Amino acid sequence: QPVLDQNDPEYLEQRGAARGRSYEADRHQGEGRPLRRQRLEAERGHWSVLANPVTMTPVPLYPNSHNMDWWDGYPAERREVLASLSGVRNPVVLSGARALGVASVHDDPPGSPTVATEFLTQGIAHTTAYGEDRISILINFLPGWQTYDLLEVGYARATVTLDAFVVDFMSVRGYGSDVLEPATRHSTWRVADGIPGAIRVA
């Protein structure tokens, strides 16, 4: 499956650059664009899964603001990726983030047809900061977002069949102490074959 990764050997060979180049430039810009399109558009699987290090769905917390650490800071490049995703079967984006999240990925403006489903999960060692509960509430009201939680720590597991792509978010308590508590299921989300967008089922 395609991976948006600045350290991919084929990516590096294609653009002829050293590994020390800017992280943002590697991920979003430059000669990697044609290769990125080729990989996405060559997908012929029943589920087309794109692994991605940062959030694809925009988080416009302030008017006319762009987060340069996420894809909404690179609208032209984001549109290219979405155009490629719209041409493959059952696109699902798996993203790294500082939150647990589910979103329906669509092009601008908000309200455009859903292109793909995005699942976010943070590292199990993620620690929360003051005020993140309020940020989570705000993001949950933004277009495309079905859930966004900066306070949950854990991991996600996916069960993939021909009929559905099902993701369980597992919550782990006790990080920072001597003993981690057993993982418990936070929520379960299902993407049906041929229908972009996730539905919470548990």
Nutshell version of this structure?
The chain is an alpha+beta fold. Helices cover 21% and strands 28% of the residues.
Please characterize this protein's 3D structure.
The structure is a single chain. With 202 residues, the protein is α+β, with helices and mostly antiparallel strands. Helix content is 21%, strand content 28%. It contains 5 helices and 9 strands. It has a 5-stranded mixed sheet with strand order 1-2-4-3-5. Helix 3 runs parallel beside helix 4. The protein is globular.
> What is the molecular shape?
globular
Strand order, biggest sheet?
Answer: 1-2-4-3-5
User: Which secondary-structure class do the elements indicate?
Assistant: alpha+beta
- Number of continuous helical runs: 5
Largest sheet, in brief, is: 5 strands, mixed
Query: Averaged pLDDT, please?
Result: 78
Strand content: 25-35%
Helix content: 10-25%
Q: Count every beta strand, where a strand is a DSSP E run of 2 or more residues.
A: 9
Radius of gyration: 17 Å
Task: List segments where confidence is low: pLDDT < 50 over at least 5 consecutive residues.
Answer: 6-31
Distance between the termini: 28 Å
Q: Spell the H/E element sequence.
A: HHHEHEEEHEEEEE
